[in-house]
TrEMBL record:
It comes from Trifolium pratense (Red clover). The lineage of its organism: Eukaryota, Viridiplantae, Streptophyta, Embryophyta, Tracheophyta. This is Uncharacterized protein.
Length: 353
């Protein structure tokens, strides 16, 4: 059996730190009745790394996060290969439908789409395997604690994340005769590829689930107003979620965030619209971005695109292909890092993918 791992995954083969609290075996949390004759299904790749279910479940692992779809692990195999394993919960479809969806997603090959490397299905266990991105998710970069993922992130890095993510979603929307929907666009499902561009993961997994995030969960802030069932997401609702992500990149606030000053929770889209309506636009942006000069016009352009995507009515939102064109047009041809005294990014390479 073969597992394909791309370069960015291979670069993440750092030794696992031994920690009794943070390190565990996935086998410890698996059901003893899970064992059956089903095998891990691998997709074609350019490198041959053999392991079986027992190897995967016994691998030294660290929980990266728990969400509405399941628990995500960073698993270090004995040959030092590092992969990401998502253990799905509340799967509401049978084996055939599950496998059909995996086959559709597994065939997607695009630099801005996280490749599905393998999957496993049994009565008690459903697993999907992806590459490991050493920089972590965009959510951890934007909102993680200092020293635990959150980092300083300049304007051009954010713009590359937006461009890559838009391209990835637009490509997903062309699959299966234009019928494939992501359904769960959020910062924790976006990673950064080796070129620094956004890369979209977890395609269509919500369609396999029997439940959706409960009210009050921060994930609900990404859902379009018309989406009452995450399994019935559309291209238009994906566009809305992407709009929320753009606002998140600009403000560094979560979709539903708590203000300690006012002692209440705010919905990011509604807050941004209220601030812009009062013509206090500059107060929207992350203070870290205000350190840079000559980028205000570009930030305002992204803000306008984000608000257009997050329009309340689906028919008022642009198509994803149009969104890609708009975002790629943000960077002005005559703009270069030399006009920014403190920018750490190279604007001249912003479209070199």
């Amino acid at each position: 059996m073969n597992l394909c791992c791309s370069d960015h995954a291979a670069s993440a083969k750092e030794p696992m730190k031994k920690s009794k609290k943070k390190e565990l075996s996935m086998k410890e949390e698996s059901s003893p009745s899970r064992r059956d004759e089903n095998k891990i299904v691998f997709f074609e790749g350019d490198c041959n790394l053999a392991f079986d279910l027992e190897d995967l479940l016994s691998a030294s692992s660290k929980i990266l996060g728990k969400g509405s779809i399941g628990t995500t692990y960073k698993a270090a195999l004995e040959d030092v290969t590092t992969v990401v394993v998502k253990r799905l919960k509340d799967v509401n479809v049978g084996k055939r439908e599950f496998e059909q969806h995996m086959e559709i997603v597994g065939k997607i090959k695009h630099e801005n789409v996280d490749a599905l490397r393998a999957y496993y299905y049994s009565k008690d266990e459903k697993l999907v395997v992806y590459d490991y991105y050493h920089q972590g998710s965009v959510y951890s970069i934007l909102h993680g604690k200092r020293g635990e993922g959150r980092t300083s992130i300049d304007w051009y890095s954010r713009l590359r994340i937006a461009i890559g993510t838009a391209r990835g979603i637009a490509h997903i929307h062309t699959q299966q005769g234009g019928k494939l929907v992501h359904g769960n666009i959020k910062a924790s499902n976006i990673f950064i590829n080796s070129q620094g561009y956004g890369c979209v993961s977890d395609i269509g997994l919500t369609t396999l689930m029997s439940s959706i995030p409960s009210p009050g969960n921060r994930e609900t802030g990404y859902y379009a107003p018309e989406v009452t069932n995450a399994r019935k997401a559309t291209h238009s609702s994906d566009v809305y979620s992407f709009g929320v992500l753009l606002l998140e990149l600009l403000t560094r606030k979560t979709p539903i965030y708590y203000s300690s000053e006012r002692g209440q929770a705010f919905h990011l889209v509604r807050w941004v619209k209220s601030v812009v309506r009062e013509e206090w636009t500059s107060e929207v942006f992350d203070v870290e971005l205000l350190r840079y000069s000559n980028i205000e016009e570009e930030m305002v352009m992204m803000l306008q695109i984000g608000m257009a995507c997050a329009a309340r009515r689906p028919d008022q939102r642009p198509k994803m292909a149009e969104v890609v064109r708009l975002i790629e047009g943000i960077h002005l041809e005559n703009r270069s890092p030399s006009t920014e005294s403190r920018s750490e990014a190279s604007a001249t390479t912003i479209y070199s993918t």
